[in-house]
Design brief:
Helix content: 25-40%
Number of strands: 8
Number of domains: 2
Strand content: 15-25%
Number of helices: 4
Strand order of the largest sheet: 1-2
Structural class: alpha+beta
């Protein structure tokens, strides 16, 4: 981000512009991100909210800009590959929209649960193998994942391991 010695082009905003957009417009970080969200919604054939609607949604996040799902403090733009805390626009299946951090928005999109993802309690997780919602203590630890748990439950993991060992031993018999 570099200072452009200009004021944000959005009418009514007196913030310092730090981003140049389409040649003649200059935006503050907030309105630049709003412009990106609107453009992405349009290109994905989704509802394109007005700047005023986005401003109202921002008020719901509170003064600290907290994610409505995980309560992480969100930022306007990420640093290189650190996108988890970046604010993003979520289009729900029921037609509503909300702001989420990028991490929750990605988890929602990848979960196979749809909007039911938001109904999960803090101690629950979805097993992608048996397609059930289980308590988090039913999952092995995995320090590489965001929630520090494996993507399948212990029972499914054991089944997969037994199958893998059987196939490995079966293959070794022929050599």
């Amino acid at each position: 981000m570099t200072s452009l010695n200009k004021i944000c082009s959005k009418k009514g905003c007196n913030e310092q512009a730090v981003y140049k957009y389409s040649g003649t417009r200059f935006y503050c970080p907030k309105h630049y991100r709003f412009t990106q969200m609107r453009h992405q919604a349009k290109t994905r054939n989704k509802y394109k909210p007005s700047f005023e609607e986005l401003e109202r949604l921002l008020i719901e996040c509170g003064p600290e800009m907290q994610c409505t799902n995980c309560h992480r403090i969100m930022i306007w733009h990420g640093q290189s590959r650190k996108l988890d805390g970046v604010i993003s626009l979520q289009h729900n299946n029921n037609g509503s929209i909300q702001f989420l951090c990028f991490g929750c928005n990605s988890a929602h999109g990848n979960s196979q649960l749809g909007d039911k993802y938001f109904d999960l309690k803090n101690n629950e997780k979805y097993c992608a193998d048996c397609k059930t919602i289980l308590n988090k203590n039913q999952f092995y630890k995995n320090n590489r994942s965001r929630d520090k748990l494996k993507w399948i439950c212990k029972a499914c993991h054991k089944k997969r391991e037994c199958k893998r060992r059987f196939l490995k031993n079966e293959n070794n018999l022929y050599f």
